[in-house]
């Protein structure tokens, strides 16, 4: 969606329409990569805290183990002191007994704390009970000994459960120690497994991230490349377009100039007879006054003396004559203009035309004139071209007509038609040895109603303008070379094959 | 500089020439009018006929020039007239159908004296001829020498 302004965005409409926002794929990939990265980071932090926990657990296990050893040591030392006292009744050993007994409590407390959350809590309390009963037994022996019942004391030591309890205590402590160790190892292994998992996830994650990132970059690069290609194409198209536009502008300008020239010529040449009509109708007005109010003397001083009625009659006839001839001249001119513009609209039809045959048939149709004038027309072998037959006929008929019209008085007319190939064009030449055309008139002769040289031949000045129109529409061009008094050559270049647009009006 | 002044009319259209002639006469101007019907004939007359030694080159002329000649433009003739030492003195009245401003300007730039567009207002036209003639003794009003 292209929005000129965020305000233009019809939010409600968009929601209602349920249309999904077109998010580019690159963005999706980047978002996924970010999520992955966040996840991996969170997992890392989690593992790190677990490792810290493990370390603390290891410390705790170590402490518990040490304290268990301390407890065992203290209990045994107490037992040794007890035995020693019973044997020697040395009060030093009694002191030792008391001291060592006191040393049990503290480490035992630590152990108790360590096993508070353990699965082996029961076994611990079992141990504790055993220790307490062992201590109780030892206290009893001491008491018996101190109360004088040495025999009972000794027998208690020898036969009492004391020795068994002690062994059990030692075993229990061993077991507790190993169990605690086991617990710790389990936990450690779990952590290790997690660590491995994290390690693999991180590898996988890193690979995926790299993949997403590089895909995203690749897609961006590709988009960029395609944008650049599009821009290049656009640039090339623009240049092309500009060139085409320039050509069209040139064409239009040419066409416009031609229309201007045309309008100028038409307005002149049509206005001229109008001037006559206006002028002579005024004359008729004046004459009618003479006729109907002959009392006023005629003002014509330059006319030879004649009966006024005769003069008036002559003037009348003259005026009417001019009016009529002007009207028919206008008619002819308008007809010529229409003819030329109509020819600009007739659709051409391209067909293979044998030019030699065509020119020969034109020449044959002019036999009478050539014989009368003592002129000769020679047709060289001409190529075949694909073009509009009628137009070609008209072009060459006109040119040959002109050639015969403007011969030199003293020289027998010699007209030749030849051609040569230029790539995909054919250049026809119509050469004559007539009176020639002055250099300054080279362009003028092609203008409508314009002629050059001595005005001693009939014609309205339409032939070459007409020929030029036709030649242009056939996709060719015409020019002339001439030397006054020697002759003229017309060069007509035509395409070998008439191409579209065939209905194109005069350029 | 006395003597009959010729009015040289360079005009291809017979009807126009006739109308001009009639109206000049009607206005009382009785000088000789020479009618040349195209550019080639005009140049011939100006530079050959009038230029012959002991020819009429130095005799005064008033030139009426149509620009729309079949074989060349009147402007060409105007240029050639004004380029000649003697002929440039002859007053030129340009008579033509076009009222194109650039064309008018061009003629004045080249030195024509009056530019008249056809159809001609013959009263003014005759008047203009008379005015021009005053410093040139062109007009020969019957029985009234200047």
Map the helices and strands.
The complex is a heterodimer of chains A (507) and B (146).
Chain A: H1 11-17, H2 25-88, H3 91-114, H4 121-146, H5 150-159, H6 162-292, H7 308-343, E1 351-354, H8 355-365, H9 367-373, E2 376-379, E3 384-387, H10 389-405, E4 414-422, E5 425-432, H11 463-473, E6 477-483, E7 487-495
Helix pairs in contact in A: 2-3, 2-4, 2-6, 3-4, 4-5, 4-6, 6-7, 8-10, 10-11
Chain B: E1 6-10, H1 14-26, E2 33-36, H2 39-49, E3 61-66, H3 74-83, E4 92-96, H4 101-110, E5 114-117, H5 122-134
Parallel strand pairs in B: 1-2, 1-3, 3-4, 4-5
Describe what you observe in this structure:
The complex is a heterodimer of chains A (507) and B (146). Chain A is α+β, with helices and mostly antiparallel strands and 507 residues long. Chain A contains 11 helices and 7 strands. In chain A, the strands form 2 sheets. In chain A, strands 2-4-5-7-6 form a 5-stranded mixed sheet, with helices on one face. In chain A, strand 4 (414-422) and strand 5 (425-432) form a beta hairpin. Chain A is rod-shaped and about 200 Å long. Chain A starts with 10 loop residues before the first helix and ends in a 12-residue tail after the last strand. In chain A, 22% of the residues are buried. Chain B is α/β, with parallel strands linked by helices and 146 residues long. Chain B has helices at 14-26, 39-49, 74-83, 101-110, 122-134, and strands at residues 6-10, 33-36, 61-66, 92-96, 114-117. Chain B has a 5-stranded parallel sheet, with helices on both faces. The radius of gyration of chain B is 14 Å and the shape is globular. Classes of the chains: A alpha+beta (507), B alpha/beta (146). Chains A and B meet through helix 6 and helix 7 of A and helix 1 of B.
């Amino acid at each position: 969606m292209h929005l000129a302004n965020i305000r233009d965005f019809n939010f409600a409409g968009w929601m209602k329409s349920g249309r999904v926002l077109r998010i580019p794929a690159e963005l999706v990939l980047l978002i996924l990569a970010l999520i992955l990265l966040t996840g991996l980071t969170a997992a890392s932090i989690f593992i790190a805290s677990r490792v810290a926990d493990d370390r603390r657990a290891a410390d705790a296990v170590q402490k518990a183990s040490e304290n268990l050893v301390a407890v065992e040591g203290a209990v045994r030392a107490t037992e040794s002191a007890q035995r020693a006292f019973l044997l020697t009744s040395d009060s030093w050993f009694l002191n030792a007994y008391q001291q060592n007994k006191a040393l049990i409590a503290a480490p035992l407390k630590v152990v108790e704390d360590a096993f508070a959350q353990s699965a082996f809590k029961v076994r611990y309390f079992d141990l504790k009970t055993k220790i307490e009963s062992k201590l109780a037994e030892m206290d009893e022996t001491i008491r018996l000994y101190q109360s004088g019942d040495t025999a009972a004391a000794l027998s208690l030591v020898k036969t009492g459960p004391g020795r068994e309890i002690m062994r059990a205590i030692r075993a229990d402590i061993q077991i507790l120690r190993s169990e605690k160790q086991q617990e710790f190892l389990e936990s450690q292994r779990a952590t290790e497994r997690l660590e491995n998992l994290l390690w693999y996830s991180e590898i996988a994650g890193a690979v995926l991230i790299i993949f997403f990132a590089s895909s995203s970059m690749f897609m961006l690069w590709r988009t960029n490349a395609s944008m650049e290609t599009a821009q290049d194409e656009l640039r090339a198209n623009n240049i092309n377009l500009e060139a085409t536009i320039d050509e069209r502008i040139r064409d239009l300008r040419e066409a416009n100039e031609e229309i201007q020239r045309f309008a100028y010529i038409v307005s002149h040449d049509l206005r001229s007879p109008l001037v006559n009509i206006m002028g002579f109708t005024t004359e008729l007005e004046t004459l009618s006054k003479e006729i109907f109010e002959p009392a006023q003397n005629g003002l014509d001083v330059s006319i030879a003396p004649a009966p006024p009625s005769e003069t008036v009659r002559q003037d009348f006839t003259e005026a009417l004559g001019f009016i009529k001839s002007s009207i028919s001249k206008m008619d002819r001119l308008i007809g010529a203009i229409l003819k030329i513009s109509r020819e600009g609209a007739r659709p051409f039809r391209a067909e293979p035309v044998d030019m030699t045959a065509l020119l020969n048939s034109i020449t044959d149709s002019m036999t009478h004139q050539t014989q009368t004038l003592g002129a000769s027309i020679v047709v060289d072998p001409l190529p075949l071209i694909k073009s509009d037959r009628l137009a070609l006929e008209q072009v060459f008929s006109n040119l040959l007509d002109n050639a015969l019209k403007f011969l030199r008085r003293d020289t027998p007319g010699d007209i030749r038609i030849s051609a040569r190939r230029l790539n995909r064009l054919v250049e026809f030449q119509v050469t004559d040895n007539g009176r020639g055309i002055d250099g300054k008139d080279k362009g003028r002769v092609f203008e409508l109603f314009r002629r050059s040289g001595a005005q001693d031949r009939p014609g309205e000045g339409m032939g070459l303008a007409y020929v030029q129109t036709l030649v242009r529409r056939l996709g060719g061009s015409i020019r002339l070379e001439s030397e006054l008094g020697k002759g003229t050559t017309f060069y007509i270049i035509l395409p070998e094959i008439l191409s579209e647009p065939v209905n194109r009006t005069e350029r | 500089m006395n003597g009959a002044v010729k009015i040289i009319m360079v005009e291809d259209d017979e009807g126009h020439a006739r109308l001009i002639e009639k109206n000049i006469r009607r206005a009382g101007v009785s000088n000789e009018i020479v009618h040349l019907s195209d550019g080639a004939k005009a140049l011939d007359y100006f530079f050959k006929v009038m230029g012959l030694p002991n020819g009429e080159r130095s005799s005064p002329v008033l030139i009426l020039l149509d620009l729309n000649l079949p074989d060349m433009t009147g402007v060409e003739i105007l240029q050639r007239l004004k380029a000649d030492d003697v002929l440039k003195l002859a007053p030129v009245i340009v008579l033509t159908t076009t009222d194109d401003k650039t064309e008018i300007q061009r003629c004045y730039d080249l030195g024509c004296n009056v530019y008249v567009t056809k159809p001609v207002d013959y009263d003014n036209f005759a008047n203009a001829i008379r005015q021009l003639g005053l410093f040139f003794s062109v007009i020969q009003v019957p029985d009234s020498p200047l």
